[in-house]
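User: What would this chain look like folded?
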Amino acid sequence: MTYTFKLSRRLARLRAPLFGLIVALFGCDGGDTFSPDPAEPQDPISSNEEAAPVAGPSAAVTYAGGIPIGTFAQPTTQFGGTFNGAMLNIYPQFLLEELAVIRARGGKVAIKLSFGDRFIKDAAGNFSLAKWKARVDLYKGVNFDSYIKDGTIIGHYLIDEPQDVANWNGQPIPQATLEEMAKHSKELWPDMVTIVRTWPDYLDNWSGTYRYLDAAWAQYAANRWPNAQAFLEENVSKARAKGLGLVVGLNLQDGGPTKSEMTASQVRSYGSALLSSTYPCAFISWKYKDDFMSASGMWEAMKDLRNQAENRGFKTCQGAALGSGTLPPPPPPPPPPALPGSGSKTLPFGLSYAPIDEYSA
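Assistant: Here's the prediction, encoded as structure tokens.
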């Protein structure tokens, strides 16, 4: 799959209400992987493009309960209906406005703050932790703490497929680096859940402990794993073993048995398998497309999955490796050094001007 930022100057002038905000839209290349699109236009954060207006609700909608369900690149107008969850990229200058609308529509959203992969690579195509931190730091001046605390934000989507060497110049991003990324996020927003879109199997293959990383992500594609139930059980087992939460979802666009779009019956069948466990904390699939959603029976299948997700008990995606998943308190200061002669537990006793030979141990 390739990240493609779809907003052009022409669309910005038209101010198409369908998009509701500037989001990063995605396209697939036929494999279950993401990579940056070399044709991606200018930096979406530094761009002076005008945003399409945010489509607000006519009346506030309360979150319906259960675990959030939705898609990547989902129009804001779709919150409050069948979908109440999503994964979106949102410009820092529009973040508060967009989060307010999502909350008012009864929605929850995972947010990616670094945008496309090309912004976080060095000249050779390797992942750059320094560049990633610089992108994330652009949001330091935006106070969105209230949306973290009330659960509107599912979590911080740190990065996509760190294990895929095709994305990172032949070198996977080490698990210790992912933990460092999660730590940086927690230093800025201690209460925000941290999520990496990679299978628990990759995260489990590390001897360290995840103190700051909260959750993994298991996206199902039938062409790679014919048995959806077995896929779920394996990922739940490995996430639990590492103390991680788990987001699940479907590769709707080319995750069918022949790497084709999933049919409505397949969406219902595979999705029901992923929702058969109470362990996952969200169900977010790749990705929203109008023509796909308009296929025969698709909305009915999605509504069926929404009902199943809503019947699950609500839970956050916060990890359980060390309990809270937030930064631990600093260690207490060391005790002051002992004064000379303070090791004795008895009180000194004597007289002024006593001769020296009167002193004894």
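The domain at 69-320 is CATH 3.20.20.80 (TIM Barrel). If you want, I can go into more detail on any region.
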